[in-house]
Amino acid sequence: MKRSVAPMPRAAYRLALAVLAASMAATVGAPAALAAPVARPATALADPPCAGLFTSFWSPALITMRRSPAPVGRIDWNFLLTPAAMLVFGPMLTVSIDRAFVNSREITSPYGPHFERNTYDFHGSLNKYNWKGSAGGGTIQTGDRLELYWSLKSDSAVGQAAVVCTVTAPGVG
What we know:
Blueprint: H1 10-24, E1 52-54, E2 61-67, E3 75-81, H2 83-89, E4 92-102, E5 105-107, E6 114-117, E7 124-126, E8 128-130, E9 137-139, E10 145-153, E11 158-166
Antiparallel strand pairs: 1-2, 2-3, 3-7, 4-5, 4-6, 4-10, 8-9, 10-11
């Protein structure tokens, strides 16, 4: 029996391309331009909550996010290389967050370069932040849109990973 497939609507096609480009940004050696924030159409699905495991087939890392309980309510993360990425990057590498955004506005990096063994848990947290290039900043709030763009560098490879999510209520994740 022959099946017919309806053509994909143009908006869905554009969204699929944006998602593909964003996931490709996490591939080892992906061009830096792919790691820029992806403009999303108003009809796009909501970002996932900043809770739980973030990974993809192409990602060099397993990233776990959670929000600590009130009153602090900071975002905590653990960033571990996949076994395949350990082979690609070799025994030592530098991991940092090169770009970060809260509600689409760039903030100063919450995670400077860390040169460690490939088995290291590149962990960190974010609560208070400063706007990049101007005075002021804020504190992470429930409902904020958070974008974190990691850079991975070693003598044998470069790579990127990203998380884009919506901040959950304190204690979730």
